[in-house]
Amino acid sequence: MIEDYHKAGEIVSKIRDDASKMIKEGLLVLDLVEYVENEIKNMGAEIAFPCNVSINEIAAHYTAYLNDPTEIQAGDLVKLDLGAHINGYIADTAITIMAPGDSLEDNLDEDTIEKNQKLIDASAEGLDAAIATVRDGVSLNKIGEEVEKVINSYGFNPIVNLHGHSLEQYNLHSGLSVPSNKDKNNQKIREGDVLAIEPFATDGLGFVTDTPDIYIFRFLKERPLRVLYTKKVLKTIKTNYSSLPFSYRWLNKIYPGARLFAAINQLIDIGAIYPYAALKEKTNKWISQTEHSVIVEKDGCEVFTK
User: Fold this and answer.
1) Catalytic positions, please?
2) b/e per residue, 61-79, with b = 16+ CB within 10 A?
3) What's the pLDDT tens digit per position in 70-88?
């Protein structure tokens, strides 16, 4: 088990570092997510969830759809969030990059560029503070308190309704919820727990809401269906993605055309799959994110996605 976590961690760390160097003005989000997902497989792991590329006020759950024309603009705050697993043991990591490009100074003034760099630093240092706090017996709200202190010291707010999470075999969100603020969760972590810690920082309210965009889903359970096409789609989902999230883009390669959209909506309506809406900051302010996965030890933790 530990070896599988380590191997998955080594893979996502290398891909994160390589992919972050690709982020620049004019890059298609589709090209970025396909590079990440293909590299995970090429390096001998499996994809733990669709690669997220969430830009500016979008916090999470955006992945490209088939033929997505979205291009990264110079100055964008690009949150790259990726995960891989070996035998179900997941490594989850994220980084925020302010996209370089010739038009950076045309798109953003100096004060905004400086503020955005501070947002990146705030989430990164918030993560460092969390990691320094993690050990057997510490409470989850203590971790959040330390994150909040750091982010507030930059003049920003943590996103209070987006949390890190514990990891178990084939289970991306396995029960524990790791806050980025001092909330009321005084549950204690224990040696051997595996956590994905991911502070988000913003100059906005610090609260995210759903957008209409939904490109990531999770299988829930089988349901009776009369429409043969929708029944086939659900069978494909159950066969290939029964445990971990999947993307509309993956299915669209198997089932091309607009008919898939109606099938997905029907599966949502009957409770066969769960939709993850892309999330945005409530006041449309920009957001940074930094994430590592750790194994809790008696007197600290091991970060396996460095």
Assistant:
1) 81, 92, 165, 173, 198, 291
2) bbbbbeebeeebbbbbbbb
3) 999 999 999 999 999 999 9
